[in-house]
Amino acid sequence: MRHVATRLGRLLRLLVLTVAALALGPLVKLTFDSSVLAQDWRTAPSVGHAPKPGEFEPAVVQVYAAATVRWRGAFGDHCWIAVKPAGATHYQRYEVMGFNLRRNRSTINETDTTEPDRPWFGAKPVLLQDVRGAEAEKIIAVLPAAVESYPHEWEYRMWPGPNSNTFIAHLAREIPSLRLSMPGRAIGKDYLLNGNIVGAAPSGTGFQVSLLGAAGVLLAWDEGLEVNVLGLVVGIDPTDLAITLPGLGRLSPLPRNYQSENSND
């Protein structure tokens, strides 16, 4: 019994040290990145990723990520998708918002906007995917059905899901042509629906094993190898010499081209 207790004690200490090490990234970001606490979003302009509807005729599909509100931005991102059919005068922006439940509304939020790339409560968005022209039209045609099939519109949990990133990951799995690789900071993307333990990676280029989004492993061509421990993701992507660290996100000497091969101007 003493031998068993000793081994359990060592395992517990190892787990505590592992979680503490993974938490260093978010602590560094919270300490040194002032944008985590910046919330003056009302005067923030568009960051310029989205073509202006009146100046760009072809269809557009874009996916964005930005740090979440206040201290939570040290740990995670909020993701959304915006689409503009050919000739449309505005974008339709889809995302999940947990505070909608307080108003007795579905968490799925759909809004019309001419600037889908405005900062999220002060945090500048990063463009994750950009598809234009005929391929974008195909995605837009099937998007409403994918949104309708999301089963958690009346449920929201910040951790480990379902949340806003669970929703976008669901859309990506339902629409493989979107070819979306979500950031490691998108906590909730690994929450598989319907109690599944094994599923496709959001990009559709591999698979993952996940226990309610709180722990798991993902292996895919686009995402690389990711290990999820309590929602904190460590990853490596040899295809572009990138590593992913909790809080800090993707780090690489090479700029990543998020634009789809099918995009066109």
Structure description:
The structure is a single chain. With about 260 residues, this protein is of the alpha+beta class. It has one domain (about 15-250). It contains 4 helices and 12 strands. It has a 7-stranded antiparallel sheet, with no helix packed on it. Strands 4-3-2-1-5 form a 5-stranded antiparallel sheet. β7 (about 205-210) and β8 form a beta hairpin. The longest helix is centred in the N-terminal third of the chain and has 21 residues, at about 1-20. The radius of gyration is 19 Å and the shape is globular.
Offer a concise description of the structure:
By secondary structure, the chain is an alpha+beta fold. It has one domain (15-251). Helix content is 21%, strand content 26%.
Task: Note the topology.
Blueprint: H1 2-22, H2 24-32, E1 60-67, E2 77-84, E3 91-96, E4 108-113, E5 126-132, H3 134-148, H4 164-174, E6 198-200, E7 206-210, E8 215-220, E9 224-229, E10 232-237, E11 242-245, E12 249-251
Largest sheet: 7 strands, antiparallel
Total strands: the figure is: 12
SS-derived structural category: alpha+beta
* Domain count: 1
The best one-word shape is globular
Distance between the termini: 69 Å
Helical residue percent band = 10-25%
> How many whole angstroms does the radius of gyration measure?
19 Å
Q: How do the helices and strands follow one another from N- to C-terminus?
A: HHEEEEEHHEEEEEEE
